[in-house]
Structures are given as structure tokens and as C-alpha cells.
Amino acid sequence: MLAKLQSLDRRIIYLVVFLSLAVPLLRPIGLPVSIAEETRALHDFIDALPPGTPVVVSFDTSPGGYGELASGAIAILNHMASKDLRAIGMGFFDTGPSLLESAFAASLYAEKEYGVDYVNLGYLAGGENAIASMAKDLLGSFPKDFRGNDTKSLKVMEGITSITDVALVVTVASGTPGIPEWIRQVGDPLKVPLATVVVAVNVPNMTPYLQSGQLCGLIPSMKGAAGYEALISMKGLGTAGMDAQSMSHLAILFFVVLGNVVHYIGKKTGKAGGDKE
Amino acid sequence: MRRELPIAITFVLGVLIILAFFFDSPTLTNASQSLQNWAVIIAAFALGIASVNLIQVHAKKIARGQDRLDWLYSGALLLGLFGMTVIGLFKGPADQMYQFWFNALFTPGQATVYAMTGFYIASAAFRAFRIRNLEAGILLVSAALVMLGNVSVGEALWSKFPVIGSWLVNVPNLAAQRGMMIGAGIGGIAGGLRVLLGIEKSYLGSGS
């Protein structure tokens, strides 16, 4: 038995993880969802904005990270659309604007008018330099939008000449450029409030910015998205995915404990099988 | 002169960008804005150069036709590259066909590769995450508490898991993160000064 466990086939581990994800998705358990303080702060910030206020939503992510961020991004867009806020979309990852198009289509903005209520300004190459350039000259950096329209002529851009004309920047981020670059080029020097939707692995990196007030809110991965969906009373991908995420975490913890028990017993009985990959 | 001139240009332009950051002068702002616009244009050209490099590497692989199925993968890559470029150039990236291929092929492909790490993490956690000493024990217990604090099932099992998980992230983690960020910031300033003063010259390429 010990020998079998010591050389446990990795395909069994994969199968258990797969089932822990698939079963709750097909048959939701309905576990309770708690709302993080920083998620509530972002919700309250957006909720307090008057209709017509412009908010920048920057998609600084690739499809790899977006799977984890989509629920949070769509929840924010839904909230913004329900409050009649103007959404100014852009991206500093080459894949960002295409993902933003999908997010707009999946949110309540799909029922609104493009160019009047929301816009996708497209991609600007150059990473942090591009953010700095955009911060100094928003319209000059994006003369045409993602769909080839003249940016200045769009109604949604009325009264916006600089990034300081927007009430909030929300960056949906999973890498570089991401929040540190936005803080350095926009948040700190221009005093524009920043918030972010981040992948779970980046949440600990964001805590210093939250505590210092450089971020006014944060949606930590799918858990944050589920909390945000609860706040706006619109269940979506976040709520649906939380059970699966819970069960997969439990499965990984189970394997960590099992691995240590097997290792400990093997050491005690002198049958340490070594760590096979 | 081949070394001195680039160092002098770097010094002058670097100082200009720093001054524009700290002083509210229209002249400095305009100058730094122009420089940053150049950087954006250079970055866009770099993408083009990267594409040329990609084509060269994979065209060679196809021409050689060896390494079993490598030529097929290279062919698929080039087909995707040319196909998306042609659609993007003639119809624009917002076109339905461009978006269809992006959403139906590229997005699920990349998301799948990323999602597969979850399975490898589970396997690696079983085989490698061992309590061999006190530090490893503290790491494992902390990781388990943060994981349980981050998911609904943790809260359902014990209401204190989220509290403990939050404390671990907001107190010990924050202290360590701050230390690392301040260290990295000072390192960045030192690195920047080395470049400005011409001490660090690796950006000039080999032979300098």
C-alpha cells in the first residue's frame, strides 16, 4: 500500500483535480460567498459616481490570465453600465482590446450604443512607456479607436482630453505592464484613482498598494468577482466558478497532506521511496 | 566615439525625462512627450522585427522538414500569423472574422495551456511539498491557511479561516512585500544612475 502511494500515478492526481473542478461546475453546491473589504470599497466608489462619468477600463492581460479575470471584469462592466457610466476601454497588452470586445459583448454594454456609451480605443505598444505617453496625451496616443473611428469625433469622448478627466481607472491585469506601471505613470503623479482586477497569485503583491491608498479597490480573482456579483445582485461566472475553485483547492490540499503522510511513514519504516516525478 | 556618443545621448535624454517628471514646465513636458512617442513607435517596429524573426526561424524548420512533426507546428504557426495579419490589415482587428479566430482558436488555446498548470501544481504539491524542516512546515501551514481563507469552502468549514488568511496576507506578507519593493526601488534607482553615468553599458550590446 505504502509503495503504491509512494509511486502514485500522476494521472490519478489529474483525474481527481479534474473531477473536483468539473462536478461542482455541473452540480453547484452553493457555498457561501464572502465579500472582501477591498471589493466592497471598489463597488462603493463606482456606485457613488454620477451617470455619464467616464471610467477607463484597461485590459492589460492575455487569454491565459483572462480566464481568471473575466468574471471580475464583466461584473465591473455590468455595474458601470447599470449606473450609465461611460466606459473608455484600452489595452497595453496586444491581446487586451480583443478580450475587451468580448467583455463588452458579454456585459450590459452590449445593449448600449458604441461610441456613445462605451468605446474600445485599442492597443498601444511600448509597455510602461506607452502608459506614460497616454497619460500625457490621451487623444494623441489613440487617434483612432479599435474599430477605425476617429476618436475625437466619438460622443463618448466628449470633454475628455486627458487621463485626468476620468474619475477612475480600472486595470484588468495579469502581468507587466500592470498596476505598478499605472501607479508610477498615472495614479501617483496625476492623482487619478486606480483599482484593479488581478489573478489570485498577484493579490499578495497588491496589498502594499491597497494599504497605502494607491489603489482604491481591488477584485481578487474569482473570489472577488463572486463577491462583486453579490453586491450588484447579478450572478455570473464568478459565483458559478467559486464551488469548483473551492473543491480544487481542497483536492490540492488533500494531496499535499497525503504526500507528507506517505513521506513520514516511509521515513519511519525505512521505506522511503524517494520523490518520483 | 562609438561608446562615448551613445552614453552622452543616454545621459542627456535620461536627465530630460527625470526633470520632466519632477518639474511642471511645458518645454520639458513637450520634449519628454516626444521622446515617449518615439519609444512607442520603436516598440511597434520591434513587434514587426519580432515577426520577421519568427518567420525566418519557422521557415527554416519547414524547409528542413526534419524533427518529426516540428515542421507541421511551424506551418500552423505561420499560417496563423499570415492569416490573422491579412484579415487584420484588410478588415481591421474588430472585424467579425478576426474576432472569431481570436475567440475560437487563440483564446481557448492559450487558456488551456495556462489552466493545465493547475494539474501540474497538484502533482508537484503531492511529490515535492514536504515538511523537511521548520521553515518548510511554516510555509506549508501558511499556504494551507491562505488557500482555505480564499475559498468559500474554507469559510464554510470554519469562519476563522478567512480572518487568519487575511491576517497572513496583510501583516507578515505585507511587511515582506514592502521590504522587497523598497529594496527593488533603491536597486532601480541605483541601476538607473549606473546607466546615466555610463557605468552600466550592457545596453550598448556586445563589444562595448
- What's the CATH class label of the largest domain in chain A? Alpha Beta
Number of domains of chain B: 2
Main beta sheet of chain A: strand number and arrangement? 6 strands, parallel
CATH architecture heading of the largest domain in chain A: 3-Layer(aba) Sandwich
Which residues of chain B form runs of ≥5 with pLDDT under 50? none
Structural class of chain B: mainly alpha
Order of helices and strands of chain A: HHHEHEHEHHEHEHEHH
N-to-C SSE string of chain B, H for helix and E for strand: HHHHHHH
Relative strand content of chain A: 5-15%
Keywords summarizing the entry:
A: 277 residues; alpha/beta; Rossmann fold; 2 domains; 6-stranded parallel β-sheet; 6 strands; elongated; B: 208 residues; mainly alpha; 7 helices
Structure explained in plain terms:
The complex is a heterodimer of chains A (277) and B (208). Chain A is an alpha/beta fold. Chain A has helices at residues 2-6, 10-26, 37-47, 63-82, 96-106, 128-136, 138-141, 179-190, 203-211, 221-231, 237-269, and strands at 54-60, 86-91, 118-123, 168-173, 194-198, 217-220. Chain A has 2 domains: 2-28 and 242-269; 37-235, MTH777-like (Rossmann fold, 3-Layer(aba) Sandwich), CATH 3.40.50.10160. Chain A starts with a helix and ends in an 8-residue tail after the last helix. Chain B has 208 residues and is mostly helical. Chain B is built from 7 helices and no strands. In chain B, α5 packs across α7. The radius of gyration of chain B is 26 Å and the shape is extended. At the A-B interface, α2, α4, α5, α6 and α9 of A face α2, α4, α5, α6 and α7 of B.
